[in-house]
Amino acid sequence: FFGSVIEAIYDTAFENDYETILTVSQEDAEREKKHIQTLVSMRVDGIIISVSQATRNIELFKWIKKMGIHVVFVDRMPDPPVPGFSTVMVDDKNGTMKVIHHAINVGHRKLAFLGGNPAINIGKNRLAGFKHALKEHGIQIKPQWIIRGGFGKQDGYDGFMRLSESGTLPEFVFAVTFPVALGVYEACKKLGLRVPDDVDVACFGDSDTNRFIAPSLTCVRQPTHELGMRAVRMILENIRNPEDEKEEHIELATELIVRETCVARKPATSDFHETRQTAPSV
């Protein structure tokens, strides 16, 4: 995901005669703070930020702005949002609702949510979409089947192990990111469970590596290139016309990609647009 976003940021900036400096926080808020302080000391023109899951200090972002440096949040931002800052996000809530509606339409009634920190927007909004979809179908939300955590593979593995200890496994697990879904796969293998026969899985986010895993994952695809491109265009507009800078929020639509998991086991219909793909034999 982030590799594609970063590539779009780099390409769009380069096309406009700007260079890109990349820093990686590795989900560490203190490291993120040090990176930002370094960038400010370098007097960069603008900073595009996707916050770490541990970020809580919004005063840091206000300080950047006081220093005369333009800021745009992409994909992730603090929750609640910081007033006065522009954002480029995807529609996390409706994207999640698409895949949950699909899972219900193919016959699942026992659904779990795994991963995601509710302290940032993507964790909060994806969980909201999950709950909203279940309520629309009159399906009871089971608190023990909502396992909050992070966004990485280990979070998926640990979270599914916690699910397995709850006594009764769900029929379907929604993983909040593709890496979380990989962790679920690994946990299922450890426990001797088959995907999708014993436990079905789908996730938010796609990856080029999806074609190499079996079964390939049904997922919510994000417009990663457009995320990066729009973020750069937004911040360049503010750099070039600082007197006209205004708070702006862009939310991009997602697409449900149906592959080898979460497929109909009985005739079913869906009101949502779907694209079907089958992984090639490898």
Task: Report a brief summary of the structure.
The chain has 282 residues and is of the alpha/beta class.
Per CATH, which architecture of the largest domain?
A: 3-Layer(aba) Sandwich
The total count of strands amounts to: 11
The major β-sheet equals: 7 strands, mixed
Number of helices: 8
- The helix/strand series, from N terminus to C terminus, equals HHEHEEHEHEHEHEEHEEE
Based on CA inertia axes, which overall geometry fits?
A: elongated
Radius of gyration: 20 Å
For this structure, what is the CATH homologous superfamily of the largest domain?
Answer: Response regulator
Secondary structure class reads alpha/beta
Would you kindly provide a written description of the structure presented here, covering whatever features stand out?
- This protein is an alpha/beta fold.
- It folds into 2 domains: 2-90 and 223-252, Response regulator (Rossmann fold), CATH 3.40.50; 92-221 and 256-276, Rossmann fold.
- It has 8 helices and 11 strands.
- It has helices at 2-15, 29-41, 59-66, 92-105, 121-136, 153-164, 178-191, 224-240; strands spanning 46-49, 70-74, 86-90, 111-114, 146-147, 172-175, 200-204, 218-221, 249-252, 255-258, 274-276.
- The chain has a 7-stranded mixed beta sheet with strand order 5-4-6-7-8-10-11, with helices on both faces.
- Helix 3 (59-66) links the parallel strand 1 and strand 2 (70-74).
- The chain starts with a helix and ends in a 6-residue tail after the last strand.
- Mean pLDDT is 91; it is low at 266-282.
